[in-house]
Design goal:
The chain has about 230 residues and is mostly helical. The protein has one domain. Helix content is about 80%, strand content about 0%. The chain contains 10 helices and no strands.
C-alpha cells in the first residue's frame, strides 16, 4: 500500500466517529456525514478502479464533484438557517449544480477533468466557511472554541479547500508543462486530504449528548428543593 492509498483510507476515521456520534448530530452534521459516507464510497471505487486498471475515471470525478458539493451546500444551508435570508444559500447551490451539469454534458464533456468548474465550487465552499466564522463572531454564543465541533469542521474545510484552489485553477498548466511537479502536487493534495479528514473526525468526536446540561439543571433543582 502506497502513501496515496493510506491517505485515502484516512476517511474511515471520521466515518467511524460519525457512526458512533450520529445520534447526537444536528441536521447540518447529518448532511456532513452524508458527504463523508459518499467520500468513503468514492474512495472505495477509486481503489477498485486502480487495481483493475480502469484508465478513464473522469465520469466518476464529475459525479463526485456534483454530489459532494450538494452535500456540503446542504450542510451550510442548514448551518446558516436563521442567520441569512431564507433559501439564499440553497439558491447558490442549485445555480451551481445547474451550471455544473451544463458544463459537464454540453461544454467540457464528462471525459475531461472539470478543473474550472471544480475551482468555482471550491471558491463557493471557502466563502461559506469564512461566512461561518463571521457568523460565529457576530453571534458570540460559543464559550470554548476548542470544544465546538463546527469550529474544527469548518477549519478543516477552509484549510483543505483553500489548499486545493490553486491546483484546480492551474490544473492544465501544471500537467502540460511539468508532469513531475504535477506528481509532487498530488502528494501535497494527499497530505491535505489526510489533515482534512482528521480534523472532521475530531469535530465528530466532540459531538456529545445535550443530556449533560439537562442533568445539571435537574441536580440544581434538586439541591434547591432540599
Amino acid at each position: 500500500m502506497d502513501f496515496g492509498d493510506f491517505s485515502a483510507l484516512i476517511i474511515l476515521l471520521p466515518f467511524l466517529f460519525g457512526l458512533l456520534r450520529f445520534k447526537h448530530f444536528d441536521k447540518s452534521l447529518k448532511w456532513l456525514f452524508c458527504f463523508v459516507a459518499y467520500g468513503v464510497a468514492n474512495e472505495t471505487f477509486s481503489l477498485i478502479s486502480k487495481y483493475l486498471d480502469i484508465i478513464n475515471t473522469m465520469p466518476r470525478r464529475h459525479l463526485y464533484t456534483f454530489i459532494s458539493f450538494l452535500f456540503l451546500g446542504l450542510f451550510y444551508n442548514s448551518l446558516f438557517k436563521g442567520f441569512f435570508r431564507k433559501n439564499w444559500i440553497l439558491t447558490i447551490v442549485v445555480l451551481y449544480e445547474l451550471y455544473f451539469l451544463i458544463n459537464s454534458f454540453f461544454i467540457r464533456g464528462i471525459f475531461e477533468y472539470p478543473a474550472m468548474a471544480r475551482a468555482i465550487s471550491i471558491i463557493i465552499i471557502v466563502l461559506f466557511s469564512i461566512l461561518y466564522f463571521y457568523k460565529t463572531m457576530v453571534e458570540a454564543k460559543i464559550s470554548s472554541l476548542f470544544d465546538e465541533p463546527q469550529i474544527w469542521i469548518n477549519a478543516a474545510i477552509l484549510i483543505y479547500f483553500s489548499g486545493n484552489l490553486f491546483f484546480h485553477i492551474l490544473f492544465n498548466v501544471i500537467f502540460e508543462n511539468s508532469p513531475e511537479f504535477g506528481k509532487l502536487t498530488f502528494f501535497y493534495l494527499r497530505i491535505l486530504n489526510a489533515i482534512f479528514y482528521v480534523l472532521i473526525a475530531v469535530g465528530f468526536y466532540l459531538c456529545k449528548s445535550d443530556n449533560r446540561s439537562e442533568s445539571i439543571g435537574k441536580m440544581e433543582s434538586l439541591k434547591h428543593n432540599l
